[in-house]
Amino acid sequence: MKLIIAATMATTLALTPLLAADNEPAKRLDAAAAVFSEIMATPDKGIPQELLENAHCIVIVPELKTAAFVLGGKFGKGYLSCRNTSGAGWSAPATVRIEGGSVGFQIGGSSTDLIMLVMSERGADKLLASKFTLGAEGSVAAGPVGRTATAQTDAQLHADILSWSRSQGLFAGVALEGATLRQDLDDNATLYGKKLENRDIVTKGVHAPQAAAKLMSLLNRYSAKKGTD
Question: Is the pTM of this model over 0.85?
Answer without folding.
Answer: no
